[in-house]
Write a structure and sequence with these properties.
By secondary structure, this protein is mostly helical. The protein contains 37 helices and 9 strands. The strands form 3 sheets. The protein has a 5-stranded mixed β-sheet. It has a two-stranded antiparallel ribbon with strand order 1-2. A two-stranded antiparallel ribbon has the order 8-9.
């Protein structure tokens, strides 16, 4: 303690501030272990403390140094002293959070140490060097100028993410800002290391600049007294080093897009290479991933949604919207930083959507852009995330393949709804589980629009004031909305409905998960191994992830690996072990599906039929219902039960799978189910003529769900081939096989789309593309 108190006062202040900061972080989820979020925040706080401490220490040595002629020796002593103090500042948060691992689980100390070292140390060195330069250049207001520069450098993040397509930012203080999305994976190690080397280079340039400025000041102070040669302001080696480092930094800045440190609009256009301009859109797409017919269909969908949304929102769009489409989530994540999350930037008139999500997400993102016409000026958005996302969900009218009010009533039934006042704020909306926040906000906004009209809602969107827009506070409006939702309560009292709601809406957010980034990255690696058919490594990776922290994705991946390896007994035992825990069972429906397959493969068809029958009662989505129904139907046919088992559980290649289905379709007892699966295989490959050849000969599937799916696939195949009238016939047929209100709305929208396309086709002079 005596030695600590003997330290300079600025050092004591900085070290105590770092200690208090670290202790506070141990009480905050996501910041209470050594990981990316804690490291990034420490880089910000540590950089500020390092700079202020450097200026204070520089000022303390100023008077003695000004009387010295040996400036180089004095500067070397100062740098050594400063390095020791910075090391202490660096170690305190590291030690505190490492010790906190005794109380809070840290799944990967090695990865946490990597992020801490790569983010925090360069930030402290950069800020200390910047502070030295300012201290050498200025005689007054040094700390004020440093804080101003520190804030401006942090503002660079907002500038980059606001003015360009990307939502991420590499920054000399933070290191890396991933953007505000729900993506949990974080694969930036290579780019981050390279960028931090540039940060260290910049720190070196600033430090050399500080040394040279100090020598210049001394030469003026001792004017008339010649300095020693080695103390003159400009040393050749220093100048050469500074020039080389500066040149390298300029090259890196010019090549920023190519190095992955930024992504400009021009870089996106060059990378994706496809471009189609329509009446209201400029669509940039991956040329190698889609053919001309698909591009024109996508363009038609853009214009179709545009017409409907302009009419519904009551707006007049004054310029073309740029729509960027990406081959995969991985490509989109690398280019703009949001892999699995589709985004809009209304102030730039841009939407960014994965190609596979166009039909599902395009309307939602276009609402954000078009609603900007009555959004807050300049930013062109609503004043809080609840209104921004709530309006988009309200226009969609559905969530999780149900009417949005019904889903909201499910959330309330299981008591999972968030605090509504907090929900309509940025922090409250982000902290709630996205499935809950999006749905609840959407239902509430839909109620306000239907009850009070779009005009009032537009005013609310711009001002954020419920009292001004409705002459009622949010509490009164929420009470009205909940009374309105009571009409749905009797319909959702069944256990299947409640189980579905618990599965979808009671999962943890990133703030409540153990080691969220670490587990997400490990699961992504396991998924990659499974796709590459490296089942033993995938099994080991999934097992390790489960040992770090239990999560449903890792369990599903472990089950999948065991199934692919033919170890069905182990898969069954693993599933039953975890399903016996009632607190976990509601999160493990995908595992139950694999359990049914494992029982089937192990010869227990009765057990498999029982499991699939239970799963059929919980209607998560059309895809889920199809997956379960196809297995139940296959189990009814003796031939299909034997032959198609290999289709479901083996790792056959595409050619063998299709050949197996073709051979099976020759038997009358398994013909329909085999042709149905054959049509599904061809649909996944975009082989539309073959889809029709496989599905059209089927008279009718026994299951209404499968018949609905058959009709929809036929309609889509004809639509992709430009045969809109035939597509409409099958969409009309599909209406006979579902009573789900959300599905009926979706099919009717597709019918409207077909009619829209047919009308456009009759007006060739007003074609979609140009």
């Amino acid at each position: 303690m005596k030695r600590f108190l003997s330290l300079p006062q600025p050092t004591i202040f900085a070290l105590l501030a770092a200690l208090v900061f670290s202790l506070v972080c141990t009480r905050i989820p996501l910041l209470n272990y050594l990981g990316f979020e804690f490291s990034a925040l420490t880089a910000v706080v540590g950089g500020l403390l390092a700079g202020l401490m450097t200026i204070a220490l520089w000022s303390q040595r100023g008077s003695a140094q000004s009387r010295s002629h040996n400036s180089d020796a004095d500067m070397l002593g100062f740098l050594k002293m400063l390095a020791g103090k910075l090391l202490l500042l660096f170690l305190i948060p590291l030690v505190i959070l490492s010790a906190n691992a005794l109380f809070v689980k840290n799944c990967s100390f090695t990865q946490g140490l990597f992020f801490y070292s790569v983010l925090v140390l360069p930030s402290m060195l950069f800020c200390a060097s910047l502070a030295m330069l300012l201290a050498a250049a200025l005689d007054r207001w040094r700390k004020t100028w440093f804080v101003a520069c520190w804030l401006l450098l942090l503002a660079h993040i907002a500038v980059v993410t606001f003015t360009g397509p990307q939502i991420y930012a590499f920054n000399p203080i933070v290191g890396f800002f991933p953007g505000i999305t729900y993506d949990e994976t974080l694969a930036i190690e290579g780019r981050l290391i390279l960028y931090r080397w540039t940060t260290l280079a910049a720190a070196m340039v600033l430090m050399i600049g500080a040394v040279i400025l100090q020598r210049v000041k001394l030469s003026r102070t001792h004017k008339g007294t010649p300095l020693e040669t080695h103390q003159r302001p400009f040393h050749p080696v220093e100048l050469a080093g500074a020039m080389m480092l500066t040149s390298a930094l300029v090259v890196v800045w010019l090549a920023s897009d190519r190095l992955g440190f930024s992504t400009s609009k021009d870089a996106l256009v060059e990378h994706l290479s496809g471009r189609l301009e329509t009446e209201h859109f400029v669509i940039v797409y991956p040329r190698n991933a889609v053919n001309d017919q698909q591009v024109r269909m996508i363009a038609g969908l853009h214009e179709f949604y545009f017409e409907r949304l302009v009419r519904e929102l009551g707006v007049v769009s004054v310029r073309k919207i740029h729509s960027f489409l990406y081959t995969s989530a991985e490509e989109k994540g690398r280019l703009i930083g949001a892999g699995g999350t589709n985004i809009a930037k209304p102030w730039l008139w841009q939407v960014h959507v994965n190609l596979a999500d166009v039909e599902r997400s395009l309307k939602h993102e276009l609402v954000h852009v078009l609603a900007a016409e009555f959004g807050f000026p300049l930013l062109r958005v609503g004043l809080n995330a609840g209104l921004i996302e709530g309006l988009a969900m309200a226009v969609e009218r559905t969530a999780y393949h149900e009417p949005i009010h019904r889903v909201a009533a499910q959330i309330i039934a299981i008591e999972a709804e968030p605090n509504m006042e907090r929900l309509f704020s940025w922090t409250g909306f982000m902290r709630a589980h996205p499935a809950v926040s999006y749905t609840i906000a959407g239902s509430f906004c839909r109620y306000l629009i239907d009850r009070y009209g779009m005009r009032r809602f537009r005013r609310l969107y711009r001002t954020g004031s419920f009292q001004t827009s409705y002459n009622k506070d949010i509490t009164a409006l929420v009470d009205e909305w909940k009374r309105f939702l009571n009409r749905y309560s009797p319909a959702i009292s069944g256990e299947g409905e409640l189980e579905k709601a618990r599965f979808l809406f009671t999962r943890q957010t990133i703030f409540g998960k153990e080691c969220a980034r670490v587990i997400a990255n490990r699961n992504a690696e396991t998924e990659r191994l499974l796709k590459q058919k490296q089942y033993e490594p995938a099994l080991a990776a999934a097992t390790h992830a489960l040992e770090l922290s239990f999560n449903a994705d890792a369990l599903r991946q472990r089950m999948t690996a065991l199934m692919r390896l033919g170890r069905y007994d182990e898969a069954i035992a693993l599933a039953q072990e975890h399903l016996s825990d009632s607190s976990l069972a509601r999160t493990l429906y995908p595992v139950r599906l694999l359990l049914g397959d494992a029982l089937w493969a192990n010869g227990d068809t009765t057990g498999a039929r029982r499991v699939f029958g239970q799963l059929a009662a919980v209607r998560f989505s059309p895809t889920w219902e199809e997956t379960v129904a196809i297995r139940l139907e296959a189990l009814e046919s003796p031939l299909a039960r034997e032959v198609l088992l290999f289709y479901f559980v083996s790792d056959m290649g595409d050619t063998l799978r299709i050949e197996l289905l073709r051979r099976t379709s020759q038997d009358a007892g398994a013909r329909n189910i085999a042709l149905f699966l054959l049509g599904r295989e061809h649909a996944a490959r975009g082989e539309h003529h073959k889809v029709i050849d496989a599905l059209l000969p089927i008279n009718r599937m026994e299951s209404d769900r499968l018949e609905l799916t058959r009709q929809l696939r036929l309609a889509r195949a004809y639509l992709q081939l430009g045969q809109t009238q035939r597509a409409m016939i099958h969409y009309w047929q599909a209406l006979n096989f579902t009573a789900n209100e959300a599905e009926l709305m979706q099919i009717r929208e597709w019918l409207d789309w077909c009619e829209w396309l047919a009308q456009r086709a009759r007006r060739p002079a007003e074609g979609i593309g140009s």
